[in-house]
């Protein structure tokens, strides 16, 4: 099936969905601290999503029984919120919010630092964000999808981290997941050519150790095979003639694209500036 191209009216709706997801992620992220259960995060996401007129896209998706994925430390993605799991000092926690609003989905995630986090883990989070932003920076009409993965994996490899290959980004629109599959380890000059009006996510999962992952018996939770910590950042973007629009982005994150070391905006600053 071909990759759908969205027109101006559809892009307005993608933007609204993206902004709602972004605002929920920001509101929930600001409440994270040691002691909070991941089930509490789920409750906050449900409530905040509803307040913005949306519905959590992930709830009931292929039987997923929560509104949000919460992925701590060695959990790469698709962590299921639970009453028993509590955030602790030194944790990395990714919160992945997807909102359905007026028929369109917006999907975004960020990895947050809880309390005092080791320098090694903080660096991992920084690499994951810079890798995503490097992928976003090469998007424009005429670029190839493989250019995105190549840019991402170069940033991670240069920092001595690995990029998960088993999962990728995805097209998004009236469905949460559709074509194209967005590999975060592509080869430059390969893959579909990007066209203005395409919408997809860029969401690299970056590991401190090896790239291999496995899925737990619950059928959802993806963890690093070697137990090393993993970090992830996700945006939903729409391709334009000279770049892209980050529909889940904000005033703080855009300058990070141009910053030489990408260090202009930490996860806590990302929240603090609003
Ligand atoms: N938001 C996730 C993504 O980035 C979707 C996870 S599917 C779920 O693609 F069912 F686990 F929620
Ligand atoms: Co996604
Ligand atoms: Co997501």
Number of domains: 1
Q: Which sequence of SSEs, written as H and E, runs from N to C?
A: HHEEEEEHHEEEEEEEEEEHH
Looking at the overall shape, the CATH architecture is: Alpha-Beta Complex
Radius of gyration: 17 Å
Terminal Cα span: 40 Å
Q: Which structural class should the secondary elements be placed in?
A: alpha+beta
DSSP strand tally: 15
Write the topology of this structure.
Elements lengths: L7 H22 L8 H14 L3 E2 L12 E4 L2 E3 L14 E10 L2 E10 L5 H19 L7 H14 L3 E2 L5 E3 L6 E5 L16 E4 L2 E3 L5 E3 L6 E3 L5 E3 L2 E6 L2 E4 L7 H5 L8 H6 L2
Antiparallel strand pairs: 1-4, 2-4, 3-12, 4-5, 6-10, 7-8, 9-14, 10-13, 11-12, 14-15
Helix pairs in contact: 1-2, 3-4
The site of one cobalt (II) ion (CO) has 5 residues, from loops.
In short:
The protein is of the alpha+beta class and about 270 residues long.
Structure description:
- The chain is an alpha+beta fold.
- The protein has a single domain (8-273), classed as Creatine Amidinohydrolase (Alpha-Beta Complex).
- 29% of the residues lie in helices and 24% in strands.
- The chain has 6 helices and 15 strands.
- It has helices at 8-29, 38-51, 119-137, 145-158, 254-258, 267-272, and strands at 55-56, 69-72, 75-77, 92-101, 104-113, 162-163, 169-171, 178-182, 199-202, 205-207, 213-215, 222-224, 230-232, 235-240, 243-246.
- Strands 1, 2, 4 and 5 form a 4-stranded antiparallel β-sheet that branches. Strands 3-12-11 form a 3-stranded antiparallel β-sheet, with no helix packed on it.
- A hairpin with a 2-residue loop joins strand 14 and strand 15 (243-246).
- Helix 1 (8-29) packs across helix 2 (38-51) and helix 3 (119-137) runs antiparallel to helix 4 (145-158).
- The protein starts with 7 loop residues before the first helix and ends with a helix.
- Residues 251-274 have low confidence and may be disordered.
- The structure holds 2-amino-4-trifluoromethylsulfanyl-butyric acid and cobalt (II) ion (CO) (2 copies).
